[in-house]
Amino acid sequence: MHCPFCRHPDSRVIDSRTSDDGLSIRRRRQCPECGGRFSTTETASLMVIKRSGVMEAFSRDKVISGVRKACQGRPVTEANLALLAQKVEEAVRQTGVSQLDTNEIGLAILGPLRELDEVAYLRFASVYQAFDSLDDFERAIRDLRADHDASEPDSHDR
């Protein structure tokens, strides 16, 4: 790490701390040449391979903007979107791979989005699961209903 003050090509780590979210490490450093102190933040890189083949760093903001379109007109807040993006990032980091394609990111969004808003989930799934017909929508709705029926107590018992 180059010193930002004198550009010396080395520095010494004085202190290291894990960030609050546990996804990065903050290091306090000191330059052996000029004695200047500075902080760095280290994160494990997570790269996304776009359809064009171009690679770019994973961005929670891009997850949010993609999901925001599916949530238009739905009762979903910015805080909900931020939490969803965090869940998606944690899920893709847990896979242990450093490079994912955009389709894998889209698929990782589906679970948390389904929990957040089923209509937005259907909108988003229709793109990422390449729905071709009404049958695809009907199948997805049938799956949602089956999950609801399985999670709700039997109303006939009352």
TrEMBL record:
Q: Which family does it belong to?
A: Belongs to the NrdR family.
Cofactor stoichiometry and binding remark: Binds 1 zinc ion.
Q: Which InterPro entries does the record match to this protein?
A: ATP-cone_dom (IPR005144), NrdR-like_N (IPR055173), RNR_NrdR-like (IPR003796)
Pfam families linked to this entry: ATP-cone, Zn_ribbon_NrdR
Q: Which organism is it from?
A: Microbacterium commune
The organism's lineage is:
Bacteria, Bacillati, Actinomycetota, Actinomycetes, Micrococcales
**Gene name?**
nrdR
User: Which PANTHER family does the protein's record reference?
Assistant: TRANSCRIPTIONAL REPRESSOR NRDR
Q: Which protein, by its recorded name, is this?
A: Transcriptional repressor NrdR
Q: Where is the ATP-cone domain?
A: 46-136
List required co-factors: Zn(2+)
Question: unnamed zinc fingers: which residues?
Answer: 3-34
Coiled coil: which residue ranges? Answer: none
Query: Which superkingdom does the taxonomy of this entry point to?
Result: Bacteria
Question: Which controlled-vocabulary keywords does the entry list?
Answer: ATP-binding, DNA-binding, Metal-binding, Nucleotide-binding, Repressor, Transcription, Transcription regulation, Zinc, Zinc-finger
| Function in brief | Negatively regulates transcription of bacterial ribonucleotide reductase nrd genes and operons by binding to NrdR-boxes.
